[in-house]
Amino acid sequence: MVRVIEPSIIFGYLVIGALLVLVGLVIIAIAKPVQRHLPKAQVPSFAPPEGDVVTHGLAVRADRHVLAAALVSLAVARKIRVLAPRGRRGPVAIEVLAGTGFSPDERFLLQAFRPMHFTPRQERRYLQALAEIGIHVDTVADAPEMLFLRGRGSFRRHRRRELRRFFDAARDRMHAEGLSKKRPNSVHLYLLSLLFLATAAIGLVLILGAFVNGDWLGAIPVALDVIAVFWVLTLSPPPFLRFTDRGRELRRELSGLRDYMRLAEQERLRVLESVAGALRAPAGDPTPGGVALGLRPREAADPVAQAGLDRIVLLERLLPYAILFRQERSWQREFEHLGGAADLSHNMRVLGSTLDGIMTMLDVLLTIAQIVRGIGLVLSLFGRAN
Fold first, then answer.
1. What is the pLDDT of residues 262-274, one digit of tens each?
2. Domain range for 261
C-alpha cells in the first residue's frame, strides 16, 4: 500500500533546498566581482598585446569563454569553418580547412575534439554523424577532417580528458613565463562542491527511505533540491589564477583593449566609420589605430569602399576578444549588417553557447572529482590510523 506523504514534509524539503540554493548564491555573489575585476588601464589599446588568445583569456579570468574565443580566432584566420544547425537542435561541427597550417598549440586544441585512433564503435558513430550533415563516406580515411562539438560525433570522455590537459598546459605555460603563480584560488568552488555533495548524499538517503516507506512522492522535492544545488554550482566562476606583477601588467593592457572595444560599441558611427575613427585616412594611409592593427600603407582608394574593408578587418581581428569580454552579441550584430555575413553571425552564436556549456561542465565535474578524491584520501588515512 502506498502512503501519501504529508504536505508539510514536502514543504520542509523545499524550504531546505531553497536555503541551500541561497547559501550557494551568496558564495557566488562574493566570487563574481573578483572574477570580473580588471585593473584600470592608463589609455585604451587599439590591438591585443603580445601573446595568444588562450593566454589572454586566462589572464582576464574568462576561462569558460576561452575555448569559444580560440576557435573563433581560427575561424577568423580562415583555418576552420563552423557548421551549425539553423535551429537549436542538431550537430555542431568544425571543418578543418585543407592546406592551412596550425601551430602545435592549435593542433593540440583541435585534437581534443576527435581521437587520433577510433575504436570500431567510435568509427561507426563518427560516420553516422557525418551522414547527418550530408557527408556519406565508407571509412574515416575518406572523410574530410571534421570535429563535432555536439551530436553523435562528439566524444565527451575524450574531450574532457584532452581539454583538461590543454588548459593545464596553458596555465603551466603562464606560470613558466612569470605571469601567474602556481596554485589558483578555488575556495569558492570547493565550498559549493562540498555543499552539492552533502546535498546529494543526504538526498540519496532520503530518496531511498521514501521508497522503502512507500512515500515515493517525497523523492520528488529531494531530487529537485539536488538539481537546484547542482545548477547553482554551474553558475559559479572557475578557479581564479593569482597573478605576478608581470601578469597584472598584461591584465592592464587587456583592460585597455576592453575599454577601446566598449568605445567602439558605444559610438560605432564615430569610431568605425568617421574619418577621425577609421583605420585608414581617405588617402589610403593607416591611422594610428590602423598601424596598431598591422595595416600597411596602400595607394589611394575609394574612401567608402576602404572604410567598409577596414571595418571588416577591425571586427574580425577583435571578435575573439569580444567573446572574452562578453561583448560578442553586439559585435555579432555588426556582422549581420555586412554583406554575406549573416551565416557567420549565426554560427558564432551557436558555437559560443555550445562551448560555454562544455567548459562549464568541465570545470564543475573536475572540481567535484577533486573533492571526492580528497574525501577518499582523508577516509583512507583515517582507516589506516585505526
1. 776 555 544 444 4
2. 253-335
Q: Which of 159, 138, 157, 163 is nearest to 147 (CA)?
A: 159
CB 122 within 8 A of CB 386: no
Inform me whether the pLDDT recorded for 355 exceeds 60: yes
Give the amino acid at 68: A
Residue 293 within a domain: yes
Q: How many structural domains compose the chain?
A: 1
Query: 289 in a domain, yes or no?
Result: yes
Please indicate, yes or no, if residue 290 is contained in any of the structural domains: yes
Residue 58: per-residue pLDDT: 92
Counting residues of the chain whose pLDDT is more than 90, the rounded percentage is 9
Cell numbers representing residue 146 in the block: 571534421
Q: Is residue 294, in this structure, part of any structural domain at all?
A: yes
Kindly report the average pLDDT of the chain as a whole number. 76
DSSP string, 117-170: S--HHHHHHHHHHHHHTT---SSGGGS--EEEEESTT--HHHHHHHHHHHHHHH
Are 79 and 100 within 8 A, CB to CB? yes
